[in-house]
Write a structure and sequence with these properties.
Elements: H1 2-27, H2 34-54, E1 56-59, H3 60-69, H4 71-78, E2 83-94, E3 100-105, E4 114-119, H5 122-127, E5 133-138, E6 140-144, E7 147-155
Parallel strand pairs: 1-2, 4-7
Antiparallel strand pairs: 2-3, 2-5, 3-4, 5-7, 6-7
Helix pairs in contact: 3-4
Length: 156
């Protein structure tokens, strides 16, 4: 009797595994044709251009000043927009989770204000150097202790 239950259990496990393999094979997408790939690339480029056209261009110094002047207004003005933020790299560090972050200077020599940008991927930070002037398209804006914090940033 125990052998019969053992065989039924193994049969169900194997049958379930085969069923999963069949379903994965059925629903696996077919490779794209060159025409479909070209259309997909064109759509992605059009979407990126639309993001760039609708993005608000602003410097790190202007963001710092807007937050210092009226934090709620700055958060309301820039909070739900794509921003192209420009400035000079003050440092490239890692946060407590070892994720790269790019610190832009606000341009003032003796200021403690800066913009912190989190790149969309680690490779972006690897390409940059301290002192370099950059522009990044970011899709999330908030503040941290009065300084601008931007996330999911892509180099422009």
């Amino acid at each position: 009797m125990a052998t019969s239950i053992f065989k039924k259990t193994w049969f169900r496990i194997v049958a379930g595994f085969v069923l999963v393999l069949v379903l994965v094979g059925i629903f696996e997408p077919e490779p794209l044709t060159p025409e479909q790939q070209a259309a997909q690339n064109a759509a992605a480029e059009a979407k990126q251009q639309q993001l760039l056209d609708s993005a608000t261009k602003i410097t790190c110094a202007a963001l710092v000043a807007a937050l210092a002047d009226n934090e709620p207004r700055a958060l309301n003005t820039y909070g739900n927009k794509n921003l192209i933020v420009s400035g000079q790299i003050d440092s490239i560090d890692a946060d407590f989770m070892d994720d790269p972050m790019i610190i832009l200077s606000d341009g003032e020599e003796f200021s403690f204000s800066s913009c912190t940008l989190y790149p969309a991927n680690d490779a972006i930070a690897m390409k940059l150097n301290k002192g370099q002037r950059i522009s990044m398209l970011c899709d999330e804006f908030s503040e941290n202790l009065g300084d601008p914090l931007l996330q999911n940033c892509k180099l422009q």
